[in-house]
Amino acid sequence: MISEASSRPGFITAPADPVGEYPRASRRFESALLHIEVLSAMNIEKLLGGFANVAAILTPLVAVLAYSRFLWERRQKRLRLESYLREQKLFECTGQHSFLHLVATLGMFEADIMDASYRSKVISRNVAVDVAGEPVRIVLEYEPDDLEKELPKRPGRGQF
Description:
Layout: H1 4-7, H2 27-91, E1 97-98, H3 99-106, H4 110-119, E2 123-129, E3 135-142, H5 147-150
Antiparallel strand pairs: 1-3, 2-3
Helix pairs in contact: 2-4
């Protein structure tokens, strides 16, 4: 005779006794085993619920951190473009630079340079024309309100 405990998952059937089969487990023992199974299932549910709560808290936190890093990188690219064009404007006669020149010098993509120029208040986008008057390329130029006002903002540089 096979006991009811052996038909339940997680139980191993004992080998047959040569004299007879093992005695059937008492009802009290079976109810205790069932109670342990229910408790372990409840603990797993509580554990999974706890993990779900932690994930619900961490998800927006990670999203805010990722977005703030994205904004910081955009700002750094804009500042790098502005400072390069400012220095070139002070030490060169034209101060106009094409995208190819800026890509090679700053190590940024064209899309990043265009995005930074659109967000900047001091960079103007102009069109360079050939002798026939047709547009050839877009050039960027640093155009502040007053160059003398911009000089003190450059850290580490003495005024001359």
